[in-house]
Amino acid sequence: MMIIVIIITITIIVAPIMAAPKSIPSQNFDLPISKCNKTHADQNVRWLYFFDDPDRIAPDNAKSFEQFCNQTNQKELYVKEYARRCLAKFPRQVTSLLMFGIIRKNRQFCSKTKLRKEMIHAAHCLNTIKRKGSKCFSRAIQDFLIIKHMAISGRVGKTCWYVIFVYYALEECLVQQATETPQSCSSEDAQMIENLIEGYTGQVVSSICQNYPKSHDSCSKLLQKKEMNKLKKLIINEMNKTYSILPPLIDILDSIPP
Predict the structure, then answer these.
(1) Which of 12, 44, 149, 151 has its Cβ near the most Cβ atoms within 10 Å?
(2) Residue 183 has pLDDT above 90, yes or no
(3) DSSP-based helix, strand, coil % in the chain, nearest 5
(4) Residue 195 resides in a domain
(5) Could you read off the pLDDT of 115-146 as tens digits, one per residue?
(6) For the chain, percent of residues with pLDDT exceeding 70
(7) pLDDT digit string (tens) for 34-71?
């Protein structure tokens, strides 16, 4: 039933926004898609989430913001084309759902003066907490990989709770980094970061796990400590090859029995 809901939701809401941005001339877009490079696509998703990419810097003026918007469009288009040409139906749909929130939020920042000013104002904060923010994403990737390797019998019927736990723990972690760095981050900056992450991830959560509350107190522990440590050892090599939350999310949802 969950898989059916996801497919219907994507069909209705994602197709229009996943069209190639008109501002990008196709002749200027060099996509080595014949190789279907999964790692490169994963790295692009990491860049789009901002905090987990070592090379991405928040724009702090109008010129750098314009460059940010152009580069964002290129990254979005690459992932879109990769999904369309290289992925099977269900992974393509999950990728499209994840990208829906990212593309919509970035278009808002790049088209609305007020939001653009908010990000430029928050640039110093974003760049200051970037290293700590990367650790928040690493924890989220680790948690998704752990869920992926849990026994199916232990997570059927609980998948939404686990997904919500990871997403909202990620959001809280990032906002906490801002609130704990008052010398660089104002309360407005912390709010902007919360809105940014909710915009990026909200569509996934609301589409996959409708009617689940934002609170995740009941999911404070995914597993008992002994089992958690066992799975952490199991995923060490996979952690080193996973750059964003997308691959484990696809695997988790794809493993749910019909």
Answers:
(1) 44
(2) yes
(3) 75, 0, 25
(4) yes
(5) 899 999 999 999 999 889 899 999 999 988 98
(6) 77
(7) 578 889 999 999 999 877 777 788 999 999 999 999 99
- DSSP annotation of 210 reads T
Q: Write the DSSP symbol of residue 22.
A: T
| 17 within domain boundaries | no
Structure tokens belonging to residue 192: 């902007």
Q: Would you say 85 and 20 are in contact if contact means Cβ atoms under 8 Å apart?
A: no
Q: Looking at the 3D structure of the chain, how many domains does it have?
A: 1
pLDDT in tens, 4-16: 444 444 444 444 4
Residue 135 domain-assigned?
A: yes
Pairwise CA distance, residues 210 & 65, whole Å: 35
> What distance in Å separates the CA atoms of residue 235 and residue 253, rounded to the nearest whole number?
18
Which of 196, 190, 10 lies closest to 108 in space, CA to CA? Answer: 196
Cα 150 from Cα 244, distance rounded (Å): 19
Cα dihedral across residues 164, 165, 169, 170: positive or negative = negative
Range of the domain at 222: 2-11+36-254
Is residue 248 in a domain? yes
- Please indicate whether residue 193 or residue 229 has the higher confidence score (pLDDT): 193
How many angstroms separate the Cα of 142 from the Cα of each of 94, 104, 120, 174? 19, 26, 31, 16
